[in-house]
Amino acid sequence: MPAPPVLLLLPGLLCDDRLWRDQTEALGVTTRCIVADLTQDDNLASMAARALDAVPADAAISLIGLSMGGYVALEILRQAPARIARLALMDTSARADTPEQSRRRRGLLSLSNSGQFRGVTPRLLPQLLHPSRLDGPLGEEVRAMADRVGRDAFQRQQRAILARPDSRPGLAAIRIPTLVAVGEHDILTPPDLAEEMAALIPGATLARIPDAAHLPPMETPEAVLRLLQTWLADGATPPHPAAS
């Protein structure tokens, strides 16, 4: 008898299972939720293989990745397309880094190498959260999450991200229900990158999430939960899922 379906959730850079906590608490009542560990490897191929190893081999996978997790999701599709039943890409991009993005990443790596890892998060935080949330409890939660991930994992993750390929040429081959979602105020992976992916994936649904920046699962948890419930149910989403 096949294993029951699994929701495999892939966190972003410096994120752990807290990123998806509000969604997994609700969805876990009826769905087995597994948050992948993306802290151990310094390349996307190994991250993807480790994430797949956490799921029973005969389980159909509903796969969602945010930011770096989206890069890993696309690598999982390259490694094991037959295992994936549906896909959600949130606040991410199919493009490789631009030279300027690579330069900034190497700067943060140098900062962390010099013993100033705690200086990394304050530099990143304004790009992760809506400005109204930077100085509140959510900002503290993001800082704590980054501290739990730690310097060594951060360096591994950045090296993996720096080496990622341009995944756009493979998007047209995706033939599973796909949701592409993005925070309306995301400046790190802005909505135009989500629009590009949705246009390249046949039949993909695009959702822009109001009042959110780069971390909608933490910023607007109920809106993201509604999106995922609909995506898990039939692969479609309402045109304005977070506007009600």
Approximate helicity band: 40-55%
Q: Sheet with the most strands? A: 6 strands, parallel
The helix/strand class is alpha/beta
Radius of gyration: 17 Å
Q: What would your notes on this structure say?
A:
This protein has 244 residues and is of the alpha/beta class. Helix content is 44%, strand content 14%. It has 9 helices and 6 strands, in the order βαβαβαβαααβαβαα. The chain has helices spanning 21-27, 44-53, 68-79, 99-113, 120-128, 137-162, 191-200, 216-219, 221-234, and strands at residues 6-10, 32-35, 61-66, 84-90, 178-183, 205-209. The radius of gyration is 17 Å and the shape is globular.
Summary, kept brief:
The chain is built from nine helices and six strands.
